Amino acid sequence: MRHVGTPAVRLASIFRAVGRIARLALCACGLGAGGAAFAAGPSPAPASLPATGVAGGAEARHWLQRIHQAASQRNYQGTLVVTANGGMSSSRLAHYGEGNQTFERIDLLDGQPRRIYRHNEQVLIVWPTAKLARFEQRDAVALFPAVLNGSEDELFERYEMLAEGTDRVAGYDARVFLLRPRDSWRFAQRLWAEQATGLLLRADVLGADGRVLETAAFTEVSVGIKSQPETVLVPMKRLDGYRIVRAVPQRTALEAQGWQMKSAVPGFRQVSCVKRNLEVGTDTAQAAPAHEVLQTIFSDGLTHVSVFIEPYRADRHQAGMTAAGATHTLMQAFGPHWVTVVGDAPMATLKQFAALLERSR
Prior knowledge:
Elements: H1 7-26, H2 33-36, E1 52-54, H3 57-73, E2 76-84, E3 87-98, E4 101-108, E5 114-119, E6 122-127, E7 132-137, H4 140-143, H5 152-158, E8 159-169, E9 172-181, E10 188-194, E11 200-206, E12 212-223, H6 230-237, E13 243-247, E14 250-251, E15 259-261, E16 269-278, E17 291-299, E18 304-311, E19 320-324, E20 327-334, E21 337-343, H7 347-356, E22 357-359
């Protein structure tokens, strides 16, 4: 369909791929500034949580803190598999943390060859076949949909955390938790956290009927490996023969661009708004001239919804709704503009975002 190749959807698909992978690393760290304050060192001892039942406030926070700390500070590498709609994709992920420095390398093992490198907020996406390298200066919210610059209190206003016993994933003993939404505007998520370190090993997104919409899980993983930041930094500098695109987003505000939300979607708040020039053919050697796209991100502490606004073109845009696993997409015209709403949220939530968006000038 024509809309699949639109710039906003193309950009969203790239970062949704990264986000699906990163879900395992950070999907439960809606801890914001609180998570950033954790000291480096061994993970704290497991909290005394019941094997099953509702997790108490302090104990629930403790486990989410352990998950966050393990994901951000420990060194690990493994193979991740994402399954949704009967399909499967796999990636190889290596993560290194050194003090306040973060290094990641992701190799997508299916479909068109792609490699993603991340050093702190700088992301490099490489298409080896097309000899294209694209730099993105991204904040944590955009890269990892689960991160909210807020507090765990906000998260627990929207989700209830239940302990569901123990299980085994990729050879590791794990505690299982369910983050159950308190309303119908968001999906539930089931998390498997490694017993000794808190590292997230698996995450399921569940529909309102309890059906698993999407699963992301390590099939094999090694924790506590030697840090190798050079495996990220060196490839980010050696790009001879590549066409290099540098996307420098300009931070802005929705209102400053002549848009506003008539009211808030329950439980979501705006956490980022940027403008960027986006090429039509970012994954090919020949790209059409760039044009401007506005992206606003809303988060509820565990997931996020992105709203893209760009000029409408009849030859490239086609209204519609799609679902791929937990990720839903809504596309529609708004006068001379084209609006794309994407997120791991029910379609009714995306429709609400579209309905509440209005032109303020």
